[in-house]
Amino acid sequence: MSTVNTLRGPIDASQIGATLMHEHIMARNPELEQNIEHPEYDEAAIFERARKSLTSLHVDKGIDTFVDLTVLGLGRDIPTVLRLTEGVPLNVVVATGYYTAKDLPTYFHTHAPDGLVGKTLGGPDVLETMFVEDITTGIPRTDGVKAGIIKIVTDEHGITSDLDRVYRAAARAQAETGVPISTHTNVHHANGRDQQKWFKANGVDLERTVIGHSGDSTDLDYLRELMDNGSFIGMDRFGMEFVLDDESRVDTLAKLLEQGYAEKITISHDAGFFSINTPPSWRAEHTPNWHHHRISDYVLPELRKRGVTEQQIAQMMVVNPVQVLTGDAEATKAAAAKVLSP
């Protein structure tokens, strides 16, 4: 792959540029919203704030690409995101996958290959079909928008039987399409180890995986283990200080960079403009620094104070995203030659 699917069509690897690898724009829940009116869902206000912020990310902060990892189960709404991002000068990569920490909805059980409906239909798992078609044909009701990455989850329950099914569908979709896999983990349960064990046992290339939310941990041994095994790690929750304060996150990242791990790290915020789960008023009161400008405004200056070089920053924000999103060695070399030269 030398191109990446975005909301506005494929872009060449040379256009990826500085990238936030784990973000969100909107997390919706149509069933809830049809039955429980959300007092803070003011679409016009949300659109205005989001457009202003996303435009500023590119124009003022130099961010070129924004990876939105909102998938089914978390509230993916690509038609709304398409309208929101009209005129925004930023590449937006969207994801396929399924977000659940334990169980799948009934539909996926009745439509499983051995399920009530699925066994009469034949063919591959509906999850695999959905993932592949999102990437190759386009996401329904979007006029052909194609996903550029797969998102899956492990949390406190570990890889349950339903998650094993999601993982298998993701692995097969990656093998067929060549797109990367990015994950959600809970560092208190060291899920990255379980994910890597599963990936290795099932033929997934660890170098095409990002172990997400690794930045919630200050355990250097754990983080080095994940990178030494081949995966990238996502230091991707800057600003989410109700989980871990940003000073600790910056200190941990600076130590890993000092130890030579710049080539295996991506950075981001896991932030969003509206989520029905944690609405704007709650975020404003409890986590005011959790927004898409936090890395530019706070994290990078703090890293520079700790001796982190511009080459290390460019490695994390430009070169590594090219490698993750394309898997193209030549494109990665070209990106490195462009931004890492003294």
Can you tell me about this structure?
With 342 residues, the protein is α/β, with parallel strands linked by helices. It has a single domain, classed as TIM Barrel (Alpha-Beta Barrel), CATH 3.20.20. 43% of the residues lie in helices and 13% in strands. The chain is built from 14 helices and twelve strands. The chain has helices at 30-35, 43-59, 78-84, 106-110, 118-121, 126-136, 161-177, 191-201, 220-228, 246-258, 280-286, 294-305, 310-326, 329-339; strands at 3-4, 11-12, 19-23, 26-27, 65-68, 91-97, 149-153, 181-184, 209-211, 232-235, 265-267, 274-275. The strands form three sheets. Strands 3-5-6-7-8-9-10-11 form an eight-stranded parallel β-sheet. Helix 7 (161-177) links the parallel strand 7 (149-153) and strand 8.
Task: Detail the topology: elements first, then pairings.
Layout lengths: L2 E2 L6 E2 L6 E5 L2 E2 L2 H6 L7 H17 L5 E4 L9 H7 L6 E7 L8 H5 L7 H4 L4 H11 L12 E5 L7 H17 L3 E4 L6 H11 L7 E3 L8 H9 L3 E4 L10 H13 L6 E3 L6 E2 L4 H7 L7 H12 L4 H17 L2 H11 L3
Parallel strand pairs: 3-5, 4-12, 5-6, 6-7, 7-8, 8-9, 9-10, 10-11
Antiparallel strand pairs: 1-2
